Structures are given as C-alpha cells and as structure tokens.
Amino acid sequence: MTANNKSNTKSTETLLIRGGRVVDPGNQRDAEMDVLIEGETISRVAKTIPAPAGGRVLEAKGLVVMPGLVDMHVHLREPGHEGAETIESGTRAAAAGGVTSVVSMPNTNPPIDNVSGIRFILRRAAETGLVRVWPTGCITRQRAGDGLAEIGAMVKAGCVAITDDGDSVSKTRLLRRAMEYAKVFDLLVIEHSEDKSLKGDGVMNEGALATRLGYRGIPKQVESIAVARNIALAELTGARMHLAHISTRDSVDLIRAAKKRGVPVTAETTPHHFSLTEEAVVTYGSNAKMNPPLGSANDRDALLKGLADGTIDAIATDHAPHTRAAKEQEFSIAPFGVVGLETLLPLTITQLIEPGLLTWSDAVKRLCLNPAKILNLPVGTLSEGAPADVVLVDPSEERQMSSFSSKSQNSPFLGWTLRGFSQAVIVGGRVVIRREALKTV
Amino acid sequence: MKDLIGLEHLSGAQIEHILETARPMKSLFTRSIKKVPVLRGKTVALVFFEASTRTRSSFELAAKRLSADTLNLAMSTSSVTKGESLLDTMKTFEAMKVDFMVLRHSSSGATELVGRDTKAHVINAGDGSHEHPTQGLLDIFTILEKKKRVDGLNVVIVGDILHSRVARSNFWGLAKLGAHITVCGPATLIPKGIEDVFGRKVRVCYKMEEALKDADVINVLRLQRERQEGDFFPSLREYTELYGLNSERLRLAKPDCLVLHPGPMNRGIEISSEVADGPRSMILEQVTNGIAIRMAVLYLFSGPNGFPANISAAKKGKKSLLEIGN
User: B108 vs A215: CB contact, 8 Å cut-off?
Assistant: First the structure.
C-alpha cells in the first residue's frame, strides 16, 4: 500500500476511473460506468469516457466505485490524548478504511468549545490530515453541562455540528435552549443519549450475562429514556436532532414512530452494535467494552431492521481509540470504546450487504450520502462538480485484521478475517491510498 | 486446569473431588502435628487488593500446613491506582517465581485477567461481585458434612445477592450438585436474569417467610452498610425488619436447618445473636472447614498441569494424603 500524505498540495491531475460498478445513490446510479476526475472535482460520469491525454487511468473492472465514506462519529483524541490517536494517525486509519471525511468529536482535552479549538483542529488537519476533517464543537462550555458554548462563533469558524458526546446534556432546559439557538444557524445538534443517573456504575448490558460475570449492568432504558426526551425536544423546538450510536430495540421503535410524526430526528448506529451482541464481552474482554454497551440479540435484530427500513439513517463508527495500557486493565476500570475506522466497510459488506439486508445503493446511502446530507457537507456523492472523494472497493478481497493503522488497536475484530476492502482511496482528486495490485495506466 | 477462577468452570465431579480431598485434610487438624510436607519448596503469594482477615489467614494457614512458604502482600488499592497496573504488579510476583498467586481484588474478572498472563497458579480469593470459589466450596463442604448430601436440599441464600461473589460461587456449586436454590432479599439487591443463569432454576422470593419454608440450609450474606447510600434500601432498621434472620423466622425452616454466614457478621442486622450463637449455626465450623478446603485446592492445583479435568484417571495411582503425611 502506498500512502501520500501531502494533503496541502492541491491536485491538478486528470484521472479516469474506468469500467467499475459505480454506486452513487445521490444520482440514482448503479451501473458499470467511467468516472473522470479533473483537479479536485468530479467532472464527468458516463458509460464510456475516452482516456484523457496526459492523465492517469485506474482500471476498476470488478470493483465497486463509490463516494468516499463519511464517518460522522470519530474521536481523533488530539488535543490531549495523543498517546491514543492524533489527527495524523486517525486520518491515516480513516484513509485505510476508505473513509474520506471524518467528523471529529469535541471531547478532547481541552474540549473544543470555542473558536480557537475549531481553528486548531482545522489547522492540524490541513498540516497532517490524510482525509477531510469536519470538526464539531461542544454544546456546553468546557463540555461541563452548564451554560452554552459560543455556538455562533464556532459555526463561523467551521464547526459542522454541536455535541457534548461522551456525555449527554443532562439539563433538559439547557438542551432546549441549545437547540433553539442552533436552529437559527440550521446547525445539527448531536446527542449522546444516556440517562447518567440510571446508568450509575454500570459497565455492560444489564441481564443474565452481567449477573453471571458479576459486572454492574446498564439497563437499555438508560438510552431509551434519553432518546424519548431528545425526540420530545426536537418536537418542541423544531431543531434538527441527530441521535448518536443507537443500540437498543426500544430506541429504534421510538425513532421510527417519531419520524412517522415528522419530527426532525436522524439516527446512526455502529458496526460493532450491528455485528456483535453482549456475548462478545466473554470473548474479547475490555475490547468489547463500549458505551452504549453491546446489547442482546433482540436489540441487534432491531438495529438490522432499522438500518434496512431507513429508521437508522447512517452508519458511524464511534471510533474511540484507547492505549493498550488503558484497555489492559480490570474490565470495570478499563475505558469504554473501540476503534472502528478500518473495519467499517468490511463489516457493512459482510453483515449487511452479503446477507441481503441492504443493497449496495442503500449501504452507500448509510455510509456516504445520508451523513453528508444530515450535516450539510458537500460530499457523499459522485455528482459532476462535487469534490472528488472516491473509493474503489473489492467486495471479495479477504484480509485477516492483524493490526490497524490507528495508533490504538482496541477492537474486538482484531484477528477476524473480513471481506471487502478499498483498493484505492481518492481525496479531492488525489490518490491517497492505492493497493499495488490495482492496475494503472 | 491451571487456575481456580470460579466454580462455574469446574464439573460436578471436580467439585466432589475437592470436597473429598478436604476431608483427610480436616482430620489433620486434630493431630498434634498439623503439617504435611506435600507442598514443601513451593511458594504461595497471598496478594490481597482488598482488606481481608479471615480469607487471607485461612489461605496462609492452609499453605503452611502443607509446608509451603508464604508471601503476604496487602496491596492498598489506592497506591496501585496511582501507578502500577494490576498486570505489572502480578508480573513482578511472577518474576519472583512464586508457584501460587492467591488473589483478592475488587474488580470482577481480575483473576481471569491475571491468570491468562502468568505461569503461576492463580487462585481466586474473591474478585468483585464475580466469584469466591473457596468460600462456595467450604459452604458446600459444611453442608455435606452435616447433611451427608447436597442433592435435593432446599438452600436459601438471603441478602445482597447483587454484589455478592459468595452467592455466585454458591449458585454454581449447589446447582452442579443438585440442590434447589432460593434467593431472598429486597428486589434492589437481586440481579436481573438470575433465574436462568446458573444452569439450574433459581427461585426468587422477596418475602423471608415464604423463602424459609422447608429450608434445609440458610446462607445469610453479610450486608455491606454502604449499600444504604446507594438507595438499595431505606435503612438498616427496615432491612432487619424484613430480612434479618431471627429465631422466630428460623422456626419456619425445617427443624434441622443449618445456618451459614461467610462472616464477618453484623450481629443484630442480617442475623440475630441468638441464631448466630445457636445450635443450628455453622459459622465457626465454616471457618475451620475453610482451611481444609483451601489445603485441598492448593494441593490439587499444585501439579505441573494443575487440576486434572478427568478425575477418575487422576485418582488412580495417587497415594492418600494421610499416607504421605505419615
């Protein structure tokens, strides 16, 4: 694999991606087509495009050509926890996973709750990032749950949404104010839905397994109580609310009903929640400890159904790197979270597309188009004139996940053999990753 | 089997083998010389990350009566959280070439975590709310000694089941040996899904009067006073009123019902003095039996491959311990 890290140089090249299966639901395309990239943008998508003089050609026969993935939930850990991840290593992991846009969470140290924080992320991304980074800012000052952060100023600086992710905003009136305020900027509010007091010292899903292992349980109502409140606030304020990492059947049911009523809510779930159940805790220990916790088979079924019928709009990783030292502790002490950028695409392919739950087109909606739409980002499609963020995917390539490009390796999928990996990743017209096997002319 | 993590992982035959082995160990206690040389030259490290008097001294005596050398390490959890990780601490002891690590820790799963990473035999002396296998074994040994059987007995476990590792080890052991298990306590202290976890139906009862009917054994758990602050129950007085074992309630059980308590007791709270000191009380017998059980465990796990899974094969060709002692 070759990686090109000079993200500050703009592409002026011409590149033809020839003969691949173009899956681009934003333009209702799913057919064998050619894609022409000129400079930083997509200039043409058509049945046959002649090879441009002086340009490069990527042979995509047998590959899926789709927009770069947009992961709307990523913890890049910089500033403050650079031992676990940096913007450089996190975006390198993203590129390795076919993710060309990452939406960074603001629960860093210090938290991103003001203009200089947003500028810091954007500057570091420009200096070191391999893919696009879209920063979010905190809802509350210091992410402390008291008092609004300078939302308007952060929006001006480039903040694409606000969230106190890692925690929910427990003061309901404050969250209401934040939503009313955000509405003026047509800014998305992302809520980590959790009733903290009900969660208490819980570390895994409540039930028979937690009882057997002697771990404190987290009842599924910890999430659904907060989801119900958040839906009610979206209804009250009319502001757009996005519900992060949905993990239970009750939440899916609440969201489905809310959408039917026309409440402006959207939702995401993660590959680990739709691929695993709480049983993974027995096998993978603290690498299966995350918040919200892995649920029952019943919850997982509901997530799969919710993804299939569109109740759940997006797949996001909640990529949460932690150092080996932090994770190699007693289960109750080890931090919550797993990395996910490099397993997002193959898990979507093997768990959702191959069993027939999602068509390729629907999967690309959940991975690219919908997150971009929810956040008003100009990516997620292969429209003519759109930024040339493209991935070439070989759905049949198998790899054993022996290590990750991320600085952290905390994943239950380590050691798994997965299928469906990107062969080339293009960001703004530049080929940032290309497998040697891929033929170029 | 290298480590003793919990009774969950032992078969009924393995449990019975430990109980049988504990019997000759106990008969040593009445001799003037209470020591056998079976673990001479072995080192047993007692690593306790939680305060403990009886379990630690019980293991220490057990090891000494088998002629092992002991290393006592009372780790204050606070100094550990400041610096060294659990695994680093345990690797340090491994580097000292100890043969056994008897580990007590406040986190569930801690012994398994350590066991996976060390060559020494790790014996769980209580991990969080998970298991306390030697306590489960000594409770069952005590029952077996008096009742001559476990199969078919009605055993009632009363109190804070949610936080209790003693309860979980009892459930596994009793279920594997065929006892009928009832738990009783406030709903806030009964963990979810308990009915179907332990391979045999556990009956849940919220009223003492109902739970104690036809009981052959009552195992009263220690009530941690801190639980009141976690809103699990309103007051100690009310707890005692609803779930305290007194002589009046004991009369609801079978007349030869045994009363067990893992200690230390809160007299007048979960158990009245009358019952604790009464003829049905096995509480001090449990303490004596604990040493025999821990001797049996250390002895049976001391082989190069630990505790064999195939008991009948292992029994063959092995000299009785008392012969070795002579």
Answer: yes
User: Is there a single domain that holds both residue A188 and residue A317?
Assistant: yes
Task: Tell how strand A390-400 and strand A417-427 pair up.
Answer: antiparallel
Q: Which fold has domain B7-132+288-318?
A: Rossmann fold (3.40.50)
Chain A residue whose CA is closest to B83: A325
CATH of the domain at A415: 2.30.40.10
Stretches where chain A sits below pLDDT 70 are 1-9
Partner-chain contact A208 B108, CB within 8 Å: no
Shared domain for A23 and A89, answered yes or no, is no
Instruction: Based on the fold, state whether residues A115 and A204 are members of the same structural domain.
Output: yes
* Nearest CA-CA distance, residue B81 and chain A, Å: 10
Sorted by where each begins, the domain ranges of chain B are 7-132+288-318, 133-284
Nearest chain A residue (CA) to B192: A207
**B322 vs B17: CA distance, rounded Å:** 16
Distances in Å between the Cα of B133 and the Cα atoms of A126, A178, B85, B121, B300 are 57, 52, 24, 14, 14
CA distance B200 to chain A (A): 13
CA-wise closest residue to B146 among B275, B279, B30: B279
Looking at the DSSP assignment, which residues form a beta bridge with residue A424?
A392, A434
What is the CATH code for B133-284?
Answer: 3.40.50.1370
Assess whether A175 and A40 both reside in one domain.
Answer: no
Identify residue A416 by its one-letter amino acid code: W
Domain co-membership, A158 together with A19 = no
Number of domains in chain A: 2
Structure confidence by residue, pLDDT tens digits, A258-308? 999 999 999 999 999 999 999 999 999 999 999 999 999 999 999 999 999
The residue annotated as part of the active site, out of A164, A313, A318, A389, is: A318
Q: Residues A421, A367: one domain?
A: no
d(CA A430, CA B8) in angstroms, rounded, equals 56
pLDDT along chain B (326 residues), means of 10: 97 96 95 93 94 93 97 70 77 92 95 93 97 98 97 98 97 98 97 93 96 98 83 93 98 98 95 98 98 98 89 63 46
Cis peptide preceding A79, ω within 30 of 0: yes
Contact residues, chain A, for B198 at CB < 8 Å: 212
Interface-testing mutation among A212, A289, A333, with chain B (most B C-beta atoms within 10 A): A212
- Cβ–Cβ below 8 Å for A214 and B8: no
Q: pTM of the prediction?
A: 0.92
**Closest-CA residue to A71 (of A147, A124, A133):** A133
Q: In this structure, what CATH number is given to the domain that contains residue A321? A: 3.20.20.140
CB contact under 8 A, A208 and B198: no
pLDDT of B316: 60
Looking at the fold, whether A339 and A198 belong to one and the same domain comes out as yes
**Active site annotation includes A299:** no
pLDDT given for residue A12 in this prediction: 84
Chain A residues touching residue B196 (CB < 8 angstroms): 208
Bond into B264 cis (ω within 30): yes
Say which residues have a Cβ less than 8 Å from residue B313's Cβ, sequence separation at least 6.
none
Q: How many CB pairs under 8 A join A and B?
A: 66
| pLDDT score recorded for residue A5 | 46
Nearest Cα of chain A lies from the Cα of B193 at a distance, in angstroms, of 4
Interface test with chain B among A197, A211, A282, by most B beta carbons within 10 Å: A211
The separation between CA A217 and the C-alpha centre of its own chain, rounded to angstroms, equals 27
Instruction: Tell me if B7-132+288-318 shares its fold with B133-284.
Output: yes
Residues 210-249 of B with CB under 8 A from A: none
Does residue A439 lie within any of the structural domains?
A: no
- Are A426 and A15 a contacting pair, CB within 8 Å? yes
Q: Note whether residue A290 is domain-resident.
A: yes
ipTM score for this prediction:
0.88
**Host domain of residue A36:** 2-65+387-434
On whether both A111 and A243 belong to a single domain, the answer is yes
